[in-house]
Amino acid sequence: MARTFLSFLVISLTIFQLSTIVESRSRARMYVELQCRSAIYPELCAQTLLPYVAKTGLLSPQLLAQISLASCLSKARYTKIYLNMVVKKLNETKNSANYLAIDDCVHQINDGVNQITQSYKELEQMGKDGDENFMWHESNVLSWISAALTDATTCIEEILGDGIISRREQAMIRARFLNVKQLASNSLAMFNRFTVRYRASRGIKNP
User: Fold this and answer.
1) CA 3 to CA 15: how far, in whole Å?
2) Where are the beta strands (DSSP E) in the chain?
3) What is the dihedral of CA 152, 79, 33, 51, to 10 degrees?
4) How far apart are CA 183 and CA 48, in angstroms?
5) Which residues contact 165 (CB under 8 A, 6 or more apart)?
6) Which H helix or E strand runs over 131?
7) Closest of 186, 203, 176, 182 to residue 66, by C-alpha
8) What is the pLDDT of residue 29?
9) Is 188 within 8 Å of 149 (Cβ atoms)?
10) Contact partners, residue 149, CB within 8 Å, separation at least 6
11) 8 Å CB contact between 31 and 149
12) 198 near 62, Cβ under 8 Å?
């Protein structure tokens, strides 16, 4: 009888723990989906943020914007590494025309990495050095994210005519820049959501 009761207790506790986990994950997903409603790519936004929210709990709009920017920066860095590999391969063929065709994208991804890095550092400072500096930080972040977004878009639109490199590599470069562009766009949405809420809570007028 005692053994039966203990088995029932163990099963009941297991079911309770599982239901708590499911409820917690469901709450995290609902929260993330709500935060991502303003993003142009809401599914990617939720995919980016959910692992952090599910692990640590409901995060502030500022932290969500930081996570979004950090994810964008990571993708931009990987794109930079891949693009440099392609350039190295083109250099080995000693075909200067091929190199020049991709040179603009090399500069754009380098600029993008720098701009997103600056944006992330600036976002970290927002709210720490007084409300009087908030709009100055805000303007900087908006300018840098927008510039990174423009760079990625330009490369997608202009990249590589037929025959410059293989279609497979062309498709991979476009896909990587598209991912950076989408993450930058979502980061901009998360940042705007944070700034609107912060200004409202502090009574700071819109710029």
Assistant:
1) 18
2) none
3) -160
4) 9
5) 86, 90, 98, 101, 102
6) none
7) 186
8) 86
9) yes
10) 181, 184, 185, 188
11) no
12) yes
CA distance linking residue 123 with residue 38, whole number of Å: 19
Largest CA distance in the chain: 84
Q: Give the C-alpha separation, 111 to 141, whole Å.
A: 14
- Residue given tokens 């598209």 in the structure block: 178
CB neighbour burial string for 67-93, b if at least 16 within 10 angstroms, e if fewer: bbbbbbbebbbebbeebeebbeebeee
Contact, 79 vs 110, CB < 8 A? no
Tokens encoding 75:
């993708």
**One pLDDT digit (tens) per residue for the chain, 207 residues:** 545 544 544 444 443 443 344 344 678 888 999 999 999 999 999 999 999 887 877 789 999 999 999 999 999 999 999 988 888 877 776 555 556 667 788 889 999 999 999 999 999 999 888 888 898 999 999 999 999 999 888 887 776 554 556 778 888 888 999 999 999 999 999 999 999 999 888 877 765
DSSP-assigned letter for residue 127 = T
Dihedrals φ, ψ of 14, to 5°? -65, -45
Instruction: Give the tokens for residue 94.
Output: 């000693």
Q: Please say whether the beta carbons of 113 and 151 come within 8 A.
A: no
